[in-house]
Every structure is written in C-alpha cells, then in structure tokens.
Amino acid sequence: MYKSSAGFEKKRVLLVGLGNTCGDVATELANVCDQVFISTRRGSWITPRLTDGGLTRDSLVKRRYVNALYNAEPRFVKNYLLERKLTRNFDHSLYGLKPNHYFDAQHPLTNDELPKLLASGRVTIKGDVKFVSDNGVFFEDGSYEDNIDVIIYTTGYKIEFPFLKHPSYKVHDNLTNLYKFVFAPDVKPHTLAIIGCIQPYGSLLPVSELQSRWAVTVFKGERSLPNETQMQNEIHQMRIHTASRYLNSPRHAVQVEWIDYMDEIARLIGCKPEWGKLILKDPRLAASIVFGPCIPSQYRLTGRGSWSGARAAILTTSDRMVGPLKSGLAQKNDPYMASYIPMILGLIMVVACLVLYVA
C-alpha cells in the first residue's frame, strides 16, 4: 500500500488508473522518481483547484444559483462550455487525455500540478495495460516500457460489508441496495445506518454529517421511512438515473450531485434552508444562501440541531475565505469581488427567465 514517496527514489513507476488518487500519487512521485507512467483506459478531464480569480473552485461552483442554472441548461450546452474552458487552459488531446464522454459523465480529476508534470515529461500517459513481462509492460496501443520497477494500482475502492451477513448488504460492482445510500429497505427495525458510502461531487464530510443527523431522527422515532416497496422503487429509479448520467463503471455506482443530495437529506430532517421565506424577513441572509458558497451552516439555521451561530457563519463566509489569504500590506483589490460577476449575471438570467415565463 502506497503511503509516501520515500523509497521510490530513482525508480520507474507505473500507476494504473486515472482518478484523484492517481493524480496525487503521481504528483508526489514525480519529485523523486526517474519516470512516472500513468495507464488509463479512457482518459479524464482535469479541473484546477483554483479558479481564474484565485479562489478554490468549489467555493464558486457550489452555490445554489450556479447549481440551479447548471441543472436548467441542456446537457450538451453546459458540457460544451465546460470542456471548451478546460481545453483552453490545457489541451487534453495534446497529452492523450481527452475522453470520449461528456465532462459530467465522470467524476473529474482535480489537480493543479499534473498538467505541468505532463508538459515537462516527468509524467507520461500510456494506454491500457495489455500484459506485464518480466521487466516491463506492454500496452494496448502497441507501445512497451522497459525496466518498470513498481506498479501501483490506483483503481478505486471496492465497496463491501463482509461483517454484515444479511443479504441486503451484499454489494455487486459497488451497487448498494440502500435507500438514500443509508438504510436497507427490508432490514427492520431500522436501527442500522450506513454513513459515508457515497461519492459526492464535493466534500464528503458535510454529507456524512447530514446522513448521521437523519439517521438519529429515524433511530429516535422522530422521522419514519417509507414502506419497503417505495424505498425499493426509489433505489431502482436512482440506478436508472445514474446509468443514464454517468459512465457504466463501479466508480460511479454511488455518485451524487453535492447540493442536490444535501438538500434531499435536509428535507427529510426538516433543516433545508428556506431562502424563499427569508427574502422579506432577512434579505441579506437569503442572498447569501442563494448566491454565496453553500456551506454546512446553511443546514443549521432551522430544524433539529439548529445552531444560533449559523446566520453569522453564513454572512461571514467571505471574510473567512479571503482574510487568511491577504498579507499585511494594504490591498486595493479584493479577490472575492470577482465571484460577484457570475452572481450578477446569474441573477439577470433568472429575472429574464421569470419575465419570459410570465409573459
């Protein structure tokens, strides 16, 4: 099991698989190895951690108005725009990375250093492995690399629950039979919850926290689950949606969109932020919920487990994001202000759509 780059000095290493783990390991190994190779079947889109304004990508993308616009756009339009922007920054075809699928059909690889390492030649992309010889590796494209010292498999995780004997917890190709990825429909009473067995396009910890809060309400009898048939039907519908949206791969069996899933679980708890009701009562807070980063504190405003400091935490998000980045020197430009440009444009689009709808 790979833990650090220590011991890999001057070696030629092959990484099999192209996900975020591969990107992180390749970035570490490239600093000490003679050469790093990455074997991939289909390539991958690489997204930067930082946006054009210098802020982290999720702080700008994980916003409710962005999520609403993204869901409203035709799939080919939003993928065309995203792929065009990514290609403008880094031509995936030039390095043999461009996949034959939409950007949103696969969990993207987020890495700032990998494009630079590919450009310098310290990391090289190869095709799928055909077979391994005594000293080297043959690839499906007919190429061969000799003197491969180490092969590291970064092909993801296999979901299984070997300590649970009930058939409902049997997993095939990472497909779980869990309602909302948490409860087994036919295991009663519902006193066992699976937490964190999910792959959101965003941070896992806030999702796990909401799942835990929901599980506690079910355990205590404050919330009830639908009947078994209804839960099984929803699991089936979720599988159909996943199959139509993502590549047919075990990796995407538990893939969900971050805000959509968080709101779904929050609705079951009774803590989904009702920004519409706040427009007149607390317009500043309502604007921050819709146009600001979707932080976990939004799910602590109301309902079970509400927190008196949630409002202040939401309103001061920008201060906590930008404050630590500034030096002691006075700065005229606030990088956070760049995030308001798409916000204003998004608001204009929403208003325009409403006007057209009413007309």
Highlighted features:
single chain, 359 residues, alpha/beta, four-stranded parallel β-sheet, three-stranded antiparallel β-sheet, 11 strands
How does this structure look, described?
By secondary structure, the chain is of the alpha/beta class. Helix content is 39%, strand content 10%. The radius of gyration is 23 Å and the shape is globular.
Strand order of the largest sheet: 5-2-1-9
In whole angstroms, how far apart are the ends? 62 Å
Range of helix content: 25-40%
Low-confidence spans: pLDDT under 50, at least 5 residues? Answer: 334-339
Number of separate strands: 11
Overall residue-averaged pLDDT value: 89
Taken from the alpha-carbon principal axes, the silhouette is globular
User: What structural category do the secondary elements indicate?
Assistant: alpha/beta
User: What string, H for helix and E for strand, traces the elements in order?
Assistant: EHEEHHHEHEEEEEEHHEHHHHHH
Fraction in beta strands: 5-15%
Rg, nearest Å? 23 Å
Number of helices: 13
Largest sheet: 4 strands, parallel
